[in-house]
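Lab meeting, item 3. Inverse folding demo.
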């Protein structure tokens, strides 16, 4: 398939979602039809004490939502912070640092490769609960250090940590924040303002205020689940989440040998204006216009889109409008036997608000890559306010095999903000890359970590990973040497087979590492190694296991909640 203009490649992804500590775990959760929402933890607020089955002042109508199990865990020394500094840092920044590092590693981009480059940083966010935590300590708590927790520093923190010299922008369009941020990043890349973009979103609930508001407005799902498209839809489940993706123009990504998870072909941002007659109410006509403009920008026919990752909150007001607009635009000239599939990742992990757009893009990219669309959960009785007979749409209730369509798959991703600030992006399946076969030669495998214990964990993780995968030994060793950020604690082995490499790495993990030799010894001594003399241009990047974080927990003190 030829595209009207050069697509933007999604080359790296990282995430922290309820029930999914990384993109592999997210894909497993989606395929299993997992619902990762759960009871409100006591370290957020006492939901039992504040519960009321009906809206009432000072009460919440649900006792569950989506929460990160390790929301307050952070590897402070890895990012050069003391425990005291980490304790007073907005935990949203901590989550972003981990997700961003993993997204860059997923792309095979080292710190040295991105430092000082025109890489833009775009972060979507709508809640700043930690600021409220600080303010509750009284006027004396407003010290100079508080400035590090301003919303603008969410993007600034990433730009500083990785020395990224492009635009640094924090975007707040409510629930469409990170999808809007991603669209802005694509515009910057197409304009040549940046050469790479790091796009992220984050949301972390630390207190009861938002749940109280949503309960009063009858937008908080009583069972803490997003039931998109269902007759029982009664609101959404506001949830924790952090996610990041790395973008490059496709030609640059291919030239650099980067992995390509999916392509962004185009998109559109819009607002409903006065079309609905109410500031906060969405409009079918305005939403449909946004969808038409997004497909026009992408240069594709809407009838060719295979599935839509909807905004999909499961609210009585928004669901019928979203389905009607999708049917109006994507239904034209669509074959009757190929309805557009419409689902929502919010049914699995809740509504991650400022991170929801990037969450939707990651799910969509994984679905395109694997050519499988996971089920959208909690869809049992079709919402009677939706004209299902007239609309060429279907909600997948089981995983759908998308293979064999004879062309690259196409998908849309939607996001809506409370003030009707909406976004829609068109994604496509990435071109498939065929790796060169293994050449049977021996290669050095190098690994490193910031601490000794992390190095042993790294060796153990890599040994297990190598035993489970069939990548060429050359590609595995090249990726470890050339496309991975290196740290002070180091080890190296030589191997001629994957089995031999796995055994050698297990020996390192057990403290019985063989003495390194050749370029491996030079690497362990901290010398600069000319890896071009070791690997030829047939070597390809493969993503190795993520860095083994050495977490410590930095909870919100009891008296501050």
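The presenter then showed the designed sequence:
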């Amino acid at each position: 398939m030829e595209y009207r203009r050069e697509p933007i490649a999604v080359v790296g992804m990282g995430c922290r979602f309820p029930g999914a500590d990384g993109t592999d775990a997210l894909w497993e959760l989606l395929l299993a039809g997992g619902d990762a929402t759960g009871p409100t933890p006591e370290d957020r607020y006492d939901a039992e004490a504040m519960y009321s089955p009906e809206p009432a002042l000072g009460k919440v109508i649900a006792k569950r939502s989506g929460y990160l199990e390790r929301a307050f865990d952070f590897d402070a020394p890895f990012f050069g912070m003391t425990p005291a500094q980490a304790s007073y840092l907005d935990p949203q920044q901590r989550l972003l640092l981990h997700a961003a590092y993993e997204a860059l590693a997923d792309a095979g981009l080292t710190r040295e490769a991105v430092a000082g480059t025109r890489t833009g940083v775009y972060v979507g966010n709508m809640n700043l609960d930690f600021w409220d935590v600080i303010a509750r300590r009284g006027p004396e708590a407003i010290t100079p250090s508080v400035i590090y927790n301003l919303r603008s520093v969410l993007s600034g923190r990433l730009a500083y940590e990785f020395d990224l010299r492009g635009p640094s922008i924090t975007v707040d369009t409510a629930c469409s924040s990170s999808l809007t941020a991603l669209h802005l990043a694509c515009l910057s890349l197409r304009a040549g303002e940046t050469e790479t973009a790091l796009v992220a979103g984050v949301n972390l609930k630390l207190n009861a205020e938002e749940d109280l508001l949503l309960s009063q407005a009858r937008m908080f799902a009583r069972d803490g689940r997003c039931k998109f498209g269902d007759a029982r839809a009664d609101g959404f489940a506001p949830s924790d989440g952090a996610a990041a993706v790395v973008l490059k123009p496709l030609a640059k990504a291919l030239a650099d040998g980067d992995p390509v998870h999916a392509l962004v072909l185009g998109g559109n941002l819009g607002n409903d204006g006065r079309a609905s007659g109410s500031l906060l109410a969405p409009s079918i006509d305005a939403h449909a216009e946004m969808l038409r403009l997004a497909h026009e920008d992408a240069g594709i026919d809407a009838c060719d889109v295979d599935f839509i990752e909807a905004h999909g909150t499961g609210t009585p007001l928004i669901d019928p409008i979203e389905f009607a607009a999708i049917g109006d635009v994507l239904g034209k000239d669509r074959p009757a036997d190929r309805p557009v599939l419409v689902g929502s990742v919010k049914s699995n992990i809740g509504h991650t608000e400022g991170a929801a757009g990037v969450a939707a893009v990651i799910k969509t990219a994984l679905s395109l890559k694997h050519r499988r669309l996971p089920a959208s959960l909690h869809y049992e009785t079709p919402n009677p306010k939706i004209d299902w007979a007239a609309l060429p749409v279907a909600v997948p209730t089981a995983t759908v095999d998308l293979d064999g369509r004879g062309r690259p798959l196409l998908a849309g991703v939607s996001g809506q903000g409370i003030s009707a600030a909406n976004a829609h992006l068109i994604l496509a399946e990435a071109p498939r890359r065929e790796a060169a076969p293994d050449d049977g030669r021996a290669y050095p495998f190098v690994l490193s970590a910031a601490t000794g214990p992390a190095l042993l964990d790294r060796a153990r993780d890599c040994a297990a990973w190598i035993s489970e995968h069939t990548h060429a030994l050359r590609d595995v060793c090249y990726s470890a040497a050339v496309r991975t950020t290196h740290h002070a604690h180091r080890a190296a082995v030589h191997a001629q087979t994957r089995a031999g490499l796995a055994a050698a790495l297990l020996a390192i993990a057990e403290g019985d590492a063989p003495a390194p030799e050749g370029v491996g010894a030079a690497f362990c001594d901290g010398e600069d190694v000319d890896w071009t003399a070791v690997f030829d241009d047939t070597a390809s990047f493969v993503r190795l296991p993520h860095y083994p974080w050495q977490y410590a927990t930095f909870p919100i003190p009891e008296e501050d909640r």
